[in-house]
Design goal:
The complex is a heterodimer of chains A (117) and B (823). Chain A is an all-alpha fold and 117 residues long. Chain A has helices at residues 2-28, 35-52, 63-91, 97-101, 105-108. The model of chain A is unreliable at 107-117 (pLDDT under 50). In chain B, the strands form 5 sheets. In chain B, strands 13, 14, 15, 16, 17, 18, 19, 20 and 21 form a 9-stranded mixed beta sheet that branches. A 6-stranded mixed beta sheet of chain B has the order 3-2-1-4-5-6, with helices on both faces. Classes of the chains: A mainly alpha (117), B alpha+beta (823).
Chain lengths: 117, 823
């Protein structure tokens, strides 16, 4: 029963994590170089691996590796967003400089005006 | 080519780390599968194995019969190519096991040996486990497993925790221990689970012969593979991200980006393998850290930098990680004085170093030996005292330092002190051993842990010569007299020796070869330091009677009691560890274990509560014994008085009768109070008036046992639509709130809730009530004031009552406010 409850909690956590990753994907799917889709899928498997590690003795020794992968994903997404922003600004030369400072990258990635969302 | 150098360097460093990691793992744990898996069966054949296993599919088979029956099946299930051995755990304590077959023995021979052995004696599990590593084939790489089948915990010396022993086996030899248990006492499961959890083994408690026939370790652990698959997918995607990051953000060439992605994938996969299958978590973690460090360093580089610079920084991080990793890998291989002891803190190490001029040439060697001894034989929380003697013209002894070994086990503090210690005025120093003996005798009085005394000297005293010249006035003692445990010489050393006293459980042959043979003049048996200061006798008295009280749960089969003891040490205070037992014939009842209790020369009271199974514990008497923990050995001592203690079991009624009596009285009192409160409340409610009215009409307060008329004007409760002067009937309150007794007036017929009724009927407020006479019908629905609202209340003239229903109903009234009818 104890083990079963651990598995149920694990399943629940993975489902929640999946939803979070779907949200991440929707937020970043239009970012440059397909960064959003690959990062979101990697993020999902990363979370699932870490959660499943609970069931294996000493598997948490892999945490440094997973933290590194997480950092890599974060940096990749950040760079993609920055590139997207630069591209957008390059295509909109008539924007005032004040406006450029307040551009929200999510606007450019289409998350707010995307009809498929 | 020059630009690619950092990249090549980084790759080489990673490959080197992978290679060195694998090499070290092999060296440290022997766990990388290479040649053969080794499986050693540890089969309990103690007397208790003759008891029935109570399996539903083999109801009349004893545990041992099941072992004999299933042994060939177990052996056949182990894959070909694996090396199998067996050792039995039974017989009398201290005896060699009946079966002791190294891994690699022919399997039919093992099955034959198990078939020919009969269960008997105790369970010397700890002793057998300690010898287990020698039963694995030497020089064979691969996993090593112990399959332990047992129905009880260890009952022989050494009486350490079995879990601690297997933890050491796992740490030192990489042995994994699986346990198949017939749990016969509650503590068994926790101890065996500790055994399996600390070695990565599997604990099972089969409930049938069919389950017993399985060997759990041969069944796949799916989670390990689930993590592997998920981890590999994660790494594959991470490699993809690495590639894109390198190509798009760092502006690297395709080749460079793909190489880095490959390294991330391969090194990460290797870390996965190390952690999940090679059981080398720390190396896996370090490798993961290295990959992370290198990746982050490279990724953090700005995209306008050249790849070469990025690689340079990555290589620097890698090199830094390797620099951190390398010492930890090589530490165990190059350390010349590895720790040789384990377990709880036990000793106060007194290291007396001859610092006279005669040993000046060997002084550094002597200091090195002291440092090495401290590294090898001290444990965290043990005490170390460094004493120097022969430092001056008086040959006096003094303490240089005393400190507690920190939790890390480091003895750097001692090493620094030794570095600072030097011989001054070598020509003026004198070596005498009597002052040292006096100093030690005094010092030992304030030592709380068990003392170990090492006296390191060339053994040459200046006393004979000085006595001839009348310079001293004491009787000198020989150096050898300090060596009641033995006088040792360090390997390849001839100029000085080490006299050792105390520390019986320390295996000094790891540091020295063996004690030097004693010559006839030695006075080792009558040392200068009183023996009671080194190893004081523990003396104890027990209470005359042990009262066995049944457990609080009347259905439990256990009894509780407390063994009272008065314990004292012979002449000094020391921390002592022992186990208290009751012996009745051949039965030994373990009462409890005392660890590191401060025992003084004055008697201390000690009470050891215990819980035992009731079976076979009828009132009788028993001998109280304490089993002293002496490290690797044990010693049993008996109470000075009484020779036997009486065990008296008291009945459940005498033990808890008063308690249950009081509880019953309290419950009865509570019930009575509750019933009285309810009755009082109901009576109070019964005497409350009810505010009765009709929609669109007035409302009246109807008190208990009051009857009022309902009808047209002139009636107490006027019903709208009823002609003046017509009385439809009367209503009277009942004991039940919300219910009335209604009686039609003479000549009227009445329907209550649709049912015709003659005479007085019970009426529920809110339900339809109909009166009829001479073809005229009057529908009436009476309401209580609560929630009905809408009807106006009237206050008739006169007839005030002694209660005020405004406050009781919380009703603020209608337009008239105070226009309520009082009856």
């Amino acid at each position: 029963m104890k083990s079963l409850s651990a598995e149920i909690i694990l399943g629940f956590v993975v489902c929640l994590w999946f939803l979070l990753c779907v949200l991440t994907y929707r937020r970043f799917r239009s970012a440059a170089w397909l960064a959003g889709s690959s990062s979101a899928s990697c993020l999902f498997f990363l979370g699932a691996t870490i959660a499943t590690s609970y069931m294996v003795l000493h598997a948490f020794f892999l945490l440094p590796l997973w933290i590194g992968v997480g950092l890599l994903l974060a940096m990749h997404l950040f760079s993609a967003q920055r590139t997207e922003r630069s591209n957008f600004l390059a295509d909109a030369p008539d924007l005032e400089s004040e406006q450029r400072d307040f551009i929200d990258p999510s606007v450019m990635s289409g998350s707010e005006f995307d009809p498929y969302i | 080519m020059k630009k690619k150098m950092p990249f090549v360097l980084a790759t080489l460093l990673i490959l080197f780390s992978i290679w060195s990691g694998s090499r070290t793992v092999s060296g440290q744990t022997g766990a990388i599968p290479a040649e053969a898996q080794q499986v050693l069966f540890l089969i309990d054949n103690s007397a208790s194995m003759t008891e029935l296993a109570h399996y539903p599919d083999d109801a009349f088979a004893s545990r041992w019969q099941l072992v004999q029956k299933l042994a060939p099946e177990w052996l056949s299930k182990i894959p070909e190519g694996s090396l199998v051995g067996a050792v039995s755990v039974g017989g009398n304590c201290g005896e060699a096991p009946s079966i002791s077959l190294r891994t690699g023995t022919d399997r039919t021979q093992i099955a034959e040996a198990i078939r020919n052995v009969a269960p008997n004696g105790a369970t010397p599990l700890n002793a057998v486990l300690k010898t287990a590593p020698s039963l694995f084939a030497m020089g064979v790489k691969g996993t090593k497993r112990i399959e332990l089948f047992s129905d009880g915990l260890n009952t022989c010396s050494p009486n350490e925790s079995t879990c601690e022993i297997v933890r050491a086996l796992h740490r030192d030899y990489g042995i994994v221990v699986d346990v198949v248990a017939w749990v016969t006492e509650p503590s068994m499961e926790s101890e065996f689970r500790c055994v399996t959890d600390s070695t990565g083994g599997i604990f099972s408690q089969p409930g049938s012969t069919k389950n017993l026939a399985r060997l759990p370790f041969l069944e796949l652990d799916p989670w390990r593979y689930v993590v592997l698959v998920l981890g590999l997918i994660t790494l594959m995607l991470a490699s993809l991200v690495s590639y894109r990051h390198g190509y798009y953000v760092m502006k690297w060439s395709t080749q460079t980006a793909s190489t880095i992605a490959t390294i991330v994938g391969v090194a990460g996969s290797f870390a996965l393998y190390l952690v999940l299958f090679a059981r080398s978590g720390w190396f896996g973690a370090l490798l993961g850290l290295m990959v992370v460090g290198a990746s982050v360093a490279i990724a953090r580089s700005r995209s306008d930098q050249s790849p070469g610079r990025s690689f340079s920084s990555g290589a620097c991080v890698l090199a830094a990680c390797l620099a951190m990793l390398f010492p930890s890998m090589t530490k165990g291989q190059t350390h010349q004085c590895p720790r040789a002891v384990q377990g709880p803190p036990r000793y106060h190490h007194i290291l007396a170093l001859d610092a006279s001029g005669t040993v000046a040439a060997s002084f550094n060697e002597m200091k090195a030996l002291v440092a090495c001894y401290a590294s090898m034989y001290t444990l965290p929380n043990e005490e170390i005292s460094l004493v120097a003697f022969g430092m001056d013209s008086q040959g006096s002894a003094r303490e240089i330092t005393t400190f507690t070994v920190p939790q890390s086990g480091s003895v750097d503090s001692l090493n620094r002190t030794l570095d600072d210690l030097e011989i001054r005025n070598a020509k003026q120093t004198r070596t005498y051993f009597k002052p040292l003996a006096d100093y030690l005798s005094q010092r030992l009085k304030s030592v709380r842990l068990e003392p170990v005394i090492l006296v390191i000297s060339d053994g040459k005293s200046d006393a004979p010569e000085d006595a001839r010249h009348g310079r001293i006035n004491f009787r000198e003692i020989p150096f050898e007299s300090f060596g009641r445990r033995g006088v040792y010489a360090a390997p390849a050393v001839t100029g000085w020796r080490v006299a050792v006293e105390g520390g019986a459980s320390l295996d000094l042959t790891l540091l020295f070869k063996h004690p030097l043979p004693a010559n006839e003049k030695d006075t080792r048996l009558s040392g200068p330091v009183p023996e009671c200061l080194v190893d004081p006798d523990l003396v104890f008295e027990a209470g005359d009677t042990v009262t066995l009280k049944p457990g609080f749960n009347p259905f439990s089969s256990t009894v509780e009691g407390a063994l009272t003891l008065k314990v004292k040490n012979e002449c000094v205070s020391r921390f002592r560890s022992f186990r208290a037992e009751l012996r009745r014939g051949n039965d030994i009842i373990k009462i409890g274990t005392v660890t590191n209790m401060s025992v003084n020369p004055e008697p201390s009271d000690l009470s050891l509560p215990f819980t035992l199974s009731r079976s076979g514990l009828e009132s009788s008497d028993a001998i109280v014994q304490l089993v002293l923990d002496q490290g690797n050995t044990e010693r049993t001592i008996y109470a000075t008085r009484p020779s036997r203690v009486a065990l008296k079991e008291i009945s459940y009624l005498s033990a808890y009768g008063v308690f249950w009596g009081v509880m019953l009285a309290a419950v009865l009192l509570l019930v009575f109070l509750g019933m009285a409160t309810v009755t009082r409340k109901r009576t109070h409610q019964r005497h409350q008036p009810q505010l009765i009215g009709v929609m669109g009409g007035n409302a009246v307060a109807l008190g208990p046992n009051q009857r009022i008329e309902i009808g047209g004007a002139g009636s107490t409760l006027q019903i709208p639509g009823v002609e003046d002067g017509i009385v439809l009937g009367s209503i009277e309150s009942t004991a039940m709130k919300g219910k009335l007794a209604v009686l039609p007036a003479e000549g009227f017929r009445m329907k209550v809730n649709g049912f015709e009724s003659t005479g007085s009927s019970e009426y529920v407020l809110g339900t339809p009530l109909q009166f009829a006479k001479d073809g005229a019908t009057y529908d009436v629905t009476l309401h209580s004031s609560a929630g009905s609202g809408g009807f106006a209340a009237q206050r008739p003239s006169g007839k005030p009552t002694d209660f005020d229903f405004f406050s009781d109903f919380g009703h603020s009234g209608g337009a008239g406010g105070s226009d309520h009818t009082y009856i």
